[in-house]
């Protein structure tokens, strides 16, 4: 009987120890250190859709605009500054840019295609610039001269200026999910939030409260892996970067019924600071339907539907 009690006590102790491990806490910080090269692929995409249906005239008009930029780069941490920031060299390995509107494709460039090897944007492949990354994922551009004023003119120069301006470089490498996390330890289920402005392309500017929640904390050998989900909802509070006046369609935007879904997810190795996968996507739709009192036919009301998909993603490339 005593033996059975001892076994039961040991079993309970092991169970408590197991579940205590599951409730561990971590600091939501990037512990970057000089190490072997890490290759990432960043994709930024904006898609606008337009559909106008006129049943009375038996007409339907659809339009679509697409802009996507994909940059693959090698990241090398060269040292740690006195302020704790990681000094990082970024070397561009590949670029892909696609842009189209209702009139057709304006540019379709892929540096990995042999036929694109002599095109102007291929000049950026192999070039490097320097940034600093803080433990909270904030990025400061330090020396970006090698990617400035490379091209002389034309559409490619305008695209390059947009891709490699200081603010865009910092946004490309920053870790939005960690920037608003306060100092201290987080456990599974804990969350933090930040006010953020809507991305470009909305019918009118608005603020969102992004809530980041720790979904999982996993131990893989010596590495602590965090899985973080993001859900954003419209906020009546004004985010710092929201314009004071209405943009886009201005007051006309109030004629539309709006639905949106703003989500994100990140898998990050907090021990090494390596991002495994991370995305944030906003999908918005606006619908305006002709009122019954103004309808001039019996085939149904006119309906205008517009949509926006704005996304950012980064992942490790094996």
Q: What are the salient characteristics of this protein?
A:
318 residues, mainly beta, Lipovitellin-phosvitin complex, beta-sheet shell regions, twelve-stranded antiparallel beta sheet, two-stranded antiparallel ribbon, 4 helices
3D architecture notes:
The protein has 318 residues and is mainly beta. The protein has a single domain, classed as Roll (Lipovitellin-phosvitin complex, beta-sheet shell regions), CATH 2.30.230. Helices cover 13% and strands 49% of the residues. The protein contains 4 helices and 14 strands. The strands form 2 sheets. Strands 2, 3, 4, 5, 6, 7, 9, 10, 11, 12, 13 and 14 form a 12-stranded antiparallel beta sheet that branches. The termini are far apart. 21% of the residues are buried. About 5% of the residues have low confidence.
Write a compact overview of the structure shown.
The protein has 318 residues and is mainly β. It has helices at 2-22, 155-163, 166-173, 176-179; strands spanning 25-27, 38-54, 59-80, 86-101, 104-110, 128-133, 139-143, 185-187, 191-197, 207-220, 223-235, 257-269, 274-289, 303-316. Helices cover 13% and strands 49% of the residues.
Write the layout of secondary structure elements.
Blueprint: H1 2-22, E1 25-27, E2 38-54, E3 59-80, E4 86-101, E5 104-110, E6 128-133, E7 139-143, H2 155-163, H3 166-173, H4 176-179, E8 185-187, E9 191-197, E10 207-220, E11 223-235, E12 257-269, E13 274-289, E14 303-316
Antiparallel strand pairs: 1-8, 2-3, 2-14, 3-4, 4-5, 4-6, 6-7, 9-10, 10-11, 11-12, 12-13, 13-14
